[in-house]
Amino acid sequence: MSAGHNLRTLRLARHLTVRDVEQATLRLAKFKDDRRFIVSNGWLTRLERGVSGPSIHKLFSLSVVYNVSFVALLKFYNVDINEREKFLPIVHSDSTQLLTSEIVNDSRAANLSFDAQTGLLGGDSAVGIELPSSVTRLSSDSIAYGYIGLKDFTMYPLIRPGAFVRIDVRQKRVEAQGFHSEYERPIYFIELRGTYACGWCELHEKELLIKPHQSSPAATRHFAYPREAEIVGRVVSFDTRCVDSDLAL
Hints:
By secondary structure, the chain is of the alpha+beta class. It has two domains: 3-79, lambda repressor-like DNA-binding domains (434 Repressor (Amino-terminal Domain)); 83-239, Umud Fragment, subunit A (Ribbon), CATH 2.10.109. It has seven helices and ten strands. The chain has helices spanning 3-13, 18-32, 41-48, 56-65, 70-76, 84-91, 101-105; strands at residues 97-99, 113-114, 120-121, 143-147, 164-168, 188-191, 196-204, 207-211, 221-224, 230-239. The chain has an eight-stranded antiparallel beta sheet. A two-stranded antiparallel ribbon has the order 2-3. Helix 2 (18-32) packs across helix 3 (41-48). The protein is elongated and about 80 Å long.
């Protein structure tokens, strides 16, 4: 049902005419000394017909008149404030990020794509990568999942931008020795106080170095440890392209 239809159903359920609503909101607007809270009968009619869109002030007035929470009315217009964290990766898409359990466990995840940086999208994306079926649900509390943004070339070409990584959050100790090849060298997922990184690590007293792959154009990054960086866990597997996309390095 449309938002307008739902609003009209609410009004009729409370046995209110559009004129009744107008008079009630006039009193509210007068008390607040703000005419933006007035819902005229003409405006309400257009709103219920879907001709006009709501403003936050008028929607608040309707929530009071209909005795319905403002948040509930927002949902009529496909706005759910509880989804804020779910969509953070879409609008803050410049850096590699952890996937929230809400996204990973979403039954729709396998049919969604990640955008050109980091985050979920509905429909087509610039890359067209779909979430692998092996990454559509968390298998245990010890496993987390991450997505490597298309601007993150730290582990290129071993882990290419656009890859999904599986992280064992129990393995937080940085091991920089004892391996015989780049395939044995531990790769870590790192939280950088609001952003994320994925790469080889070296710990020198209180300084953490994030080391790029030797073929990567990225540079080594230095962070005060643990003040500026924290190990999320060790990457134990990843899903990556075997050829470059049309992105330029």
